Amino acid sequence: MQIFIRLVFTFAILMPVTGWPDAGNETYQSTILITGANRGIGLEFVRQYSQLQWKVIATARKPAEADELNALASNNNNIVIEQLDVTDHQRIDELAQKYQSQAIDILMNNAAITPKYLSAFRSLDGVDLNMARLSFDVNAMGPLKMAQAFMPHVEASQQKKIIVISSKAGSFAESPEAAMMYSYRASKAALNMYMYTLAFETEKRGIILTLLSPGTVNTMGFFGRFMPGSIQPEESVSNMVNVIAELKLQDNGKMLNHIDGSVISW
Ligand SMILES: NC(=O)c1ccc[n+]([C@@H]2O[C@H](COP(=O)([O-])OP(=O)(O)OC[C@H]3O[C@@H](n4cnc5c(N)ncnc54)[C@H](OP(=O)(O)O)[C@@H]3O)[C@@H](O)[C@H]2O)c1
Question: Which of 1, 30, 94, 236 could pair covalently with 105 via S-S, beta carbons 3.0-4.6 A apart?
Answer without folding.
Answer: 30
